[in-house]
Design goal:
The strands form three sheets. A six-stranded mixed sheet has the order 10-9-8-11-13-12, with helices on both faces. Strands 1-2-3-5-4 form a five-stranded mixed β-barrel. Strands 6-7 form a two-stranded antiparallel ribbon. It starts with 8 loop residues before the first helix and ends in a 7-residue tail after the last helix. By secondary structure, the protein is of the alpha/beta class. 29% of the residues lie in helices and 22% in strands. 28% of the residues are buried. It folds into three domains: 59 residues, Beta Barrel (OB fold (Dihydrolipoamide Acetyltransferase, E2P)), CATH 2.40.50; 160 residues, Rossmann fold, CATH 3.40.50.300; 65 residues, Ribonucleotide Reductase Protein R1, domain 1 (Orthogonal Bundle), CATH 1.10.40.50.
């Protein structure tokens, strides 16, 4: 390999001069870019789109903003410090400089990116389920555990109830009464008959709520009923898979005229809990808490272990067999769903 020729003193001086010019130009450019922004102010993130976010200022004006490279996470509901751009004709003109501490945050595990925040500074989580594509109590249990783990009040909502016969409705209500009996609020809704819409609106009033649930359960349809001007895109159930299709692809925050805000999050096909230690998963079943720590063995698996007070409570009808089985199903699937790079 040929050796690189040595630079003469004159050439070295020229390299140094060129480098100084580039640094000066970079400094001038940074100062010029800095002059493109107004003074820093407080705002709220109402939409997240890839590398950009929509920030609403205190006057209700929305600014699409870049984010400083030092900011690692921005989600709907975040309170931020930002600088609006002076040239409002630009599609992206502002810049987010800092994210204030969150009072609450809902997270979910991502196969590739680890645990990701979904929404911040929320008061309650509305777990939207439906009789179509199918009512999954196990999915409801997963979201309840996630809600309890971050200490945000959950509400269970069953949509599309107009599709149920009287007998089917009675059967579903029996299944969901298990949750009512342990203190969870249940709301039944129909976008076609408007059943339960007033109850839902009252539940959302003056609170910051987030809709979560599988794709196809009707979250966008509910928003269109609650906020006709929102004009959310509605999807159908896939003919091939029988599963809901994604219609909401980015989280967005919507305001209710009478008070309260709603964050609509993209639907998911599966909501895993592999990021939680077993102790936190178990504690997420609130009716188990009275029995935890009372078993004969400290490492009790709550199955056929001798002296298991939780298993005894199930046998005596003090704890739901349905929820107990759901707990063990989630527990048994955790290792299967956990990515290899995240295994302990």
């Amino acid at each position: 390999m040929a050796k690189k020729p040595k630079l003469t003193k004159k050439q070295k001086r020229q390299v140094s001069v060129n480098r100084s010019k580039r640094l000066a130009k970079s400094s001038d450019q940074s100062e010029m870019e800095d002059n493109q922004f107004e003074e820093q102010q407080v705002g709220r993130v109402i939409g997240r789109f890839g590398k950009h976010a929509d920030v609403e200022d205190q006057q209700g004006i929305v600014h699409r903003c870049h984010m400083r490279r030092t900011i690692t996470s921005v989600v709907c509901g975040d309170q931020v410090l930002f600088r609006p751009g002076k040239d409002l004709s630009l599609s992206i003109s502002g810049i987010i400089e800092a994210v204030e501490d969150r009072k609450s945050v809902l997270t979910r595990p991502d196969f590739y990116d680890g645990v990701k925040p979904v929404a911040a500074n929320i008061d309650q989580i509305i777990i939207v389920s439906s009789v179509l594509p199918s009512l999954s109590l196990n999915i409801i249990d997963r979201y309840l555990v996630a809600s309890e783990d971050v200490e945000i009040t959950p509400v269970i909502l069953l949509n599309k109830v107009e599709m149920l016969t009287s007998e089917e409705r009675a059967e579903v209500e029996t299944q969901l009464n298990v949750y009512r009996d342990i203190g969870y609020q249940i709301v039944y809704t129909s976008c076609k008959t408007l059943t339960g819409v007033e109850q839902l609106a009252a539940c959302l009033k003056d609170k910051v709520s987030v809709f979560v649930g599988q794709s196809g359960v009707g979250k966008s349809s509910l928003i269109n009923v609650l906020l006709p001007d929102a004009d959310e895109v509605i999807g159908d159930i896939s003919d091939n898979s029988g599963l809901g299709q994604h219609t909401t692809t980015t989280a967005k925050l919507l305001h209710f005229p009478a008070g309260g805000d709603l964050i609509d999050s993209p639907g998911v096909r599966e909501f895993a809990l592999w990021h939680l230690p077993t102790e936190r998963l178990t504690n997420g079943f609130i009716e188990f808490r009275d029995y935890l720590g009372g078993c004969k063995f400290r490492d009790c698996k709550h199955q056929n272990d001798p002296g298991c007070v939780l298993k005894e409570a199930v046998e005596k009808g003090k704890v739901s067999q349905q929820r107990y089985q759901s707990y063990h199903k989630i527990l048994s699937n955790m290792d299967e769903l956990r990515p290899s790079h995240a295994k302990p």
